[in-house]
Amino acid sequence: MNFLSQLTGSFAQPCAENPTVAMVEAAYQHHGLDWRYINCEVAPEDLGDAVRGARAMNWAGFNCSIPHKVAVIEHLDGLGESARIIGAVNCAVRRDGKLIGENTDGKGFVESLREQVDPAGKSVVMFGAGGAARAIGVETALAGATHITVVNRSPERGEELAALLSEKTPATAEFVHWDGDYAVPTGTDIVVNATSIGLFPDVDARVPIDMETLTPQMVVADVIPNPPRTRLVRESEACGCTVIDGLGMLVNQGVIGIKYWTDQDVDPAVMRAKLEEIFGG
Ligand code: NDP
Questions:
Q1: Per-residue b or e along 28-62, where b marks 16 or more CB atoms closer than 10 Å to that residue's CB
Q2: What does the alpha-carbon distance between residue 190 and residue 113 come to, in Å, rounded to a whole number?
Q3: CB of 221 closer than 6 A to ligand 1?
Q4: CB contact at 8 A, 71 and 51
Q5: 37 C-alpha to center of ligand 1: Å?
């Protein structure tokens, strides 16, 4: 008899609408893993106590989301390579008694990208320069993309991200100020919406792109998980592009987090099915 489950979970605020718990627990159950994932509401001033609690209770690790991705770093014992470059952690992993911060946001994105196209040697246009864009930009560059154009509304964040990518990764990067419909340059292989445009409930919001510049050789990826079939996904598909929805990134970061914690490879299809049940396919 063993009534002691292995513990993992998530620290965020607010957290009631975070679907990760449903997705991860679906995988644990499907694979017969005696593991639990607890969704915890943690206020910024309580983050240190929450991490100490996780250590005291021997948690195998935890995800952290808004607003803890940067603040958690001072409570951890070290950082993985991409988390160090990105400057943010969304997944802490217990290794040899130490809590190490990883960033699975961008790794999950690259994994879902690889289902359609290998980013190595590719030219990428990415809209956005927030937390998701930083993670996606760094991991896509580390996966071998040669050039990344960061297109962002606010110049400060966009310039900072383009400089980070140029200085800290092997890719070249440039910033373009987003002002009106952006014409995607010929020769672009991958187009990424890493902004929050299109997220529920603003489902009709339009990502300002000159859709006539999209060509069928391009892969268009959206980070928005809810709804999965965003306006951008639907309109890019109508242009003949290969499309990737935001569920792919969410599922794959879950797969990577579970691998870090349990050392088990879980079936992404089970996790995607659970999210489709929640958000619609
Ligand atoms: P941030 O708030 O850090 O960044 C938001 C970005 O969107 C900024 O670049 C901002 O530009 C841009 N933006 C927002 N509204 C507009 C607009 N109307 N016009 C132009 N640009 C706009 O958010 P995150 O990076 O953390 O998250 C972005 C999205 O990614 C969220 O919707 C989130 O749901 C999704 N996400 C999905 C994940 C997945 O697994 N599928 C994982 C993580 C995030 P500016 O700098 O000018 O403000």
A1: beeeebebebebbebeeeebeebbeebbeeebbbb
A2: 9
A3: no
A4: no
A5: 26
| Distance from C-alpha of 91 to C-alpha of 83, rounded to nearest angstrom | 9
Pocket test for ligand 1, best of 195, 197, 245, 272 (most atoms within 8 A of CB): 195
Residue 281 pLDDT: 60
Give CA–CA dist 201/219, Å, rounded. Answer: 25
Question: How many residues belong to the chain?
Answer: 281
Distances, alpha carbon 277 to alpha carbons 228, 247, 267, 270, in Å = 12, 12, 16, 11
C-beta of residue 20 within 8 angstroms of C-beta of residue 63: yes
Report whether 105 belongs to an annotated binding site: yes
- The residue nearest atom 26 of ligand 1, judged by CA position, is 131
Confidence label for 1 from pLDDT (cuts 50, 70 and 90) = confident
User: Lowest-confidence range among 109-113, 192-196, 199-203?
Assistant: 199-203
| CA 157 / ligand 1 centre spacing (Å) | 12
In short, whether 224's Cβ falls inside 6 Å of ligand 1 is yes
Is 168 labeled as catalytic in the residue annotation? no
Q: What is the pLDDT of residues 110-129, one digit of tens each?
A: 999 999 999 999 999 999 99
Instruction: In whole angstroms, give the CA distance from residue 129 to residue 192.
Output: 11
Domains of the chain: 6-102+248-279 (3.40.50.10860), 107-244 (3.40.50.720)
Taking residues 189-214, report their average pLDDT.
96
Q: What is the mean pLDDT of residues 210-233?
A: 96
**How much of the chain, in percent, has pLDDT values that exceed 90?**
95
Give the closest residue (by CA) to ligand 1 atom 6: 195
